[in-house]
Every structure is written in C-alpha cells, then in structure tokens.
Design goal:
Layout lengths: L3 E7 L5 H12 L4 E4 L7 E8 L6 H4 L4 E9 L1 E3 L8 E4 L7 H10 L2 E5 L8 E2 L2 E2 H6 L9 E14 L2 E8 L5 H11 L4 E11 L2 E2 L6 H6 L4 E2 H8 L2 E3 L2 H8 L4 E2 L7 E4 L5 E7 L3 E7 L2
Parallel strand pairs: 3-12, 15-17
Antiparallel strand pairs: 1-3, 1-14, 2-3, 4-11, 4-12, 5-6, 7-10, 8-9, 10-11, 12-13, 16-19, 17-18, 18-19
Amino acid sequence: MTDGLVIVDKPAGWTSHDVVARLRRLAGTRRVGHAGTLDPMATGVLVIGIGQATRLLGHLALSDKDYNATVKLGMTTTTDDAEGEEVEARSAANVSDAAIEKAMNALTGPIDQVPSSVSAIKVDGVRSYKRVRDGETVELNARPVTVERFDLVERRGDDLDVRVTCSTGTYVRALARDLGRALDVGGHLTALRRTRVGGFAVDEAKTLEQLEEALVVVPLAAAVRSAFPAVTVTDEEAVRIGHGQRLALDLAASPTGVFGPGGRVIALVEDRGGVAQPLCVFA
C-alpha cells in the first residue's frame, strides 16, 4: 500500500462512498477516505486519501473549489437540483440578461447561505436529507460562505452555464435556488462538474476505468507540497516536530507542511502565535 492521494474524476450516478469502496478494493486497504462530498449527479474532482494521507483530508476539505454548472430557470424542485420533484414552474422568458447578471453579482462575495434541506448536515444528530425523506419539513440556518466567482458563461434559453469559485460549505444548488428566487421565476441545478479542489485540478484526475488499469497515487510528500505551503527544518527540529512538540517557526499560512532536510514529510502544522503546533505527524 502506498500512502498518498488519488485524484478521481467521479462519474455521474456514483456516490462519494461508492468511489471510496472501489478504491479500497484497488488499494487493498480499508484505510481510504475522501475530501469534500460530491452528490451522485455531480462529476469531477474527488480527492481520495490512502493510508496516512487520510489524515490530510479534513484539511483539504477546507480548500476553495471550482465548478462548472448549469442552472435552469423557471422551475423549483424539492432538492434544488434535477433529482428532486417539481414544486413550481414559471415562465422565465421575460428575464433579461442584465437582470441575471445583477442577481449573480448579488450572490458573489461573502454571503449568508441557507443550505439545501436535502443535505448531509445533521439536525439533532440526524442527517437533514433523511428527515426530509421521512416527511419532515427541515429549515436549516444560514451560514457564512464566500463565493469568489459566479460568472455567466452562456445563456441557452432558460439554461445558464455558469462558473463558480467558492469556499468550503457552499452549496452550488443553493446558489441555483437563490438565483431563481431573486429573479422571481425559480431555478434549480441540472448539471455540476467540480474542476478543482485546492491545488488539484481535473486535468490530473483519473477515471475509475483508468485507475482499474493503473492505480496512480500522488505520494504523501508530493501531496502535501501540492496542497499546502512548505517549510524545511533541520534534523533536530524534524525530530522535535516528529515527537509532536511545538516549534518556533515563521509560517506564511496555516496549515503548512514541514519537511526534513532530505525532503521527507514530517508533519502538518498550524500557527499558534508564532509557534508551529503539529496538526498531524507522519514521521
């Protein structure tokens, strides 16, 4: 087993857990996880961790992400996407391009977003989507997210092809819902493709068919360098960090990967008032 990351181009119709199950078989270990869930209808970058690299996943999930998506105006659904049942339909024929651009601009930047009720967020210990499927009405609280980019690429009648760059915790289908609501015609997501998670882009992702032929793993050290800032320490400092001790280091950002003189990855650390605090130790 090789510790590292596998960058998967998830196919439509697969859950993130389905992909993890396939990678467990290919890697020959149960120590496999993923960073940042993708809905079954979505495709694109799903970062899979194997072995010690599973300890990176919680930190990778905090990275910003890029998406290509399609929003259909004129219809709301129970799930805010094409997998849900129709709730209401209205004509969007009179919605102007200028109105669309204005509404998209209002949904760009730091915003308070109410997640889709059919989501994995827990309410009193139970997933929101399970409560909804059991017939409950769930109202989730708004949470702060940042939408760095919400751009219209092309309009095809009621279908809007858009590009989104956003912080973790942002629901693109909630953006589709809120865009339709702002235009007073309703809207939902019909297609979603994640093209980047942090430093990992879709052009380096492999399909499951390609991974069946050859399991391509980004080694742990290379994965840390790709995903986080890096700092090299002396042998003595590497031993201290490797034992979980705090160390005075000038860190440009948190988390930062710590490497020994020979390029061996030692740990992932965060800044605590000018002192590097180990988050996870590999060596």
